[in-house]
Specification:
four-stranded parallel sheet; alpha/beta
Length: 134
């Protein structure tokens, strides 16, 4: 196994991040008990990528930890109103954040969708609107 993510999308703004960090360290230790080469993937917990600099990195004596972020451009009206060039520009601007971390960083979820046209997204957040652009 190359990598394992032990928790997908913990919502940092509503969590005790100290508990989340301890969970991640404990999970890393458990993985190491079984396989020293498998990377562990931690999610950015919607705190931004730079928040995780200094945490579980080689300077902390931890190896093989990857940071996962999810990039969508459909969850607010400003993003939905972008034309295709605006979406591409926003994606390219985000690329600089990916290189400014002290861990391997991946975009583990993303979409090419340009609207929040999925009816089922309403369960994700009360702020998500079903928008149909013709």
């Amino acid at each position: 196994m190359t990598a394992i993510a032990v928790l997908n999308e913990p919502f940092g703004p509503s969590l005790d991040l100290g508990v989340l960090k301890k969970f991640n360290y404990d999970a890393w230790g458990t993985i190491r008990d079984y396989n020293a080469d498998t990377s562990m993937v931690i999610h950015d917990a919607f705190e931004g990528l730079s928040y995780w600099n200094g945490f579980m990195n080689s300077a902390a004596g931890v190896n093989n930890v990857m940071l996962d972020t999810h990039v969508y451009q459909v969850f607010n009206q400003d993003q939905i109103s972008l034309d295709i060039n605006g979406h591409v520009s926003q994606a390219c601007e985000f690329a600089s954040q990916l290189t400014d971390t002290d861990k391997w960083t991946i975009v583990g979820e993303w979409t090419g969708a340009t609207t929040d046209c999925a009816f089922w997204l309403k369960s994700v957040s009360p702020f998500i609107q079903y928008v149909y652009i013709s």
